[in-house]
């Protein structure tokens, strides 16, 4: 099993609110991988498949979030999830 990480900076002025958190969590669930998201690189992550856990981080504009993906095709999944999170802004 491989692990991949992506660090992306949130540009949306309102941060990660309900709509992007929901779209991201759905994409995580569909990926079949174990995924965590942390508000800052190096922080302990939360289960990214849970909308409530993602929203509980209170991610704001300018935060550099870290996505960690464990599983088959982790590189491809990590890229897709990063794009999903940025596209929902």
SSE run: EHEEHEH
What fraction of the residues are assigned to beta strands by DSSP? 25-35%
Helix content range? 25-40%
Q: What distance separates the N and C termini?
A: 31 Å
Mean pLDDT: 93
Structural class: alpha+beta
Count of DSSP-assigned helices: 3
**Record field, number of beta strands:** 4
Described by the principal axes of the CA atoms, the overall outline is: globular
Describe the biggest sheet?
4 strands, antiparallel
Give the radius of gyration.
11 Å
Low-confidence stretches: none
Strands of the largest sheet, in order across it?
1-4-2-3
Indicate the topology.
Elements: E1 2-9, H1 18-31, E2 34-38, E3 46-47, H2 51-56, E4 64-71, H3 74-87
Antiparallel strand pairs: 1-4, 2-3, 2-4
What does this structure look like?
- This protein has 89 residues and is of the alpha+beta class.
- It contains three helices and four strands; from the N terminus they run βαββαβα.
- It has a four-stranded antiparallel beta sheet with strand order 1-4-2-3, covered by helices on one side.
- Strand 2 and strand 3 (46-47) form a beta hairpin.
- Helix 1 runs antiparallel to helix 3.
- The relative contact order is 0.33.
């Amino acid at each position: 099993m491989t692990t991949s990480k992506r660090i992306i900076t949130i540009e949306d002025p309102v941060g990660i609110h309900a709509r992007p958190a929901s779209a991201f969590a759905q994409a995580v669930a569909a990926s079949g991988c174990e995924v965590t998201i942390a508000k800052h690189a190096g922080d302990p992550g939360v289960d990214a498949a849970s909308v409530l856990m993602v929203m509980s981080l209170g991610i704001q504009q300018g935060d550099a979030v870290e996505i960690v993906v464990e599983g088959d095709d982790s590189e491809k999944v990590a890229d897709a999830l990063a794009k999903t999170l940025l596209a929902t802004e």
